[in-house]
Design brief:
Radius of gyration: 15 Å
Oligomer: single chain
Distance between the termini: 53 Å
Order of helices and strands: HHHH
Largest sheet: none
Length: 98
């Protein structure tokens, strides 16, 4: 028997479905992404904040899709899909800040 609560999606049962655990995880992930973008040459700004939201949102959406069984892709395929979706926009946003 799972230690996650019953009902809802697998992701929701295990990660709080938008509750405190989910929000905390999203904040932690946002901090990591923000630091990496700043280290890559980004400047603290409203546009960087929006970029962080987009990167984290894409990652969480793919993770949720996989955890809920909506996709049967491998972790390597998820990583490739994430990078294909996110990297061009991140590169463009960082070069626009130069």
């Amino acid at each position: 028997m799972s230690t996650c609560t019953s009902g809802g999606s697998s992701y929701g049962r295990c990660w709080g479905g938008g509750g405190l655990v989910y929000a905390r995880g999203e904040r932690l992930l946002s901090a990591v992404v923000r630091k990496e973008l700043l280290d890559a040459g980004g400047r603290a700004s409203a546009s960087l904040d929006l970029l962080v939201v987009g990167v984290v949102g894409a990652f969480v959406a793919l993770l949720r899709s996989w955890a809920d069984g909506e996709t049967t892709t491998t972790p390597a395929q998820l990583d490739a899909a994430f990078r294909a979706c996110v990297e061009p926009g991140v590169r463009a946003a960082l070069s626009a800040q130069e």
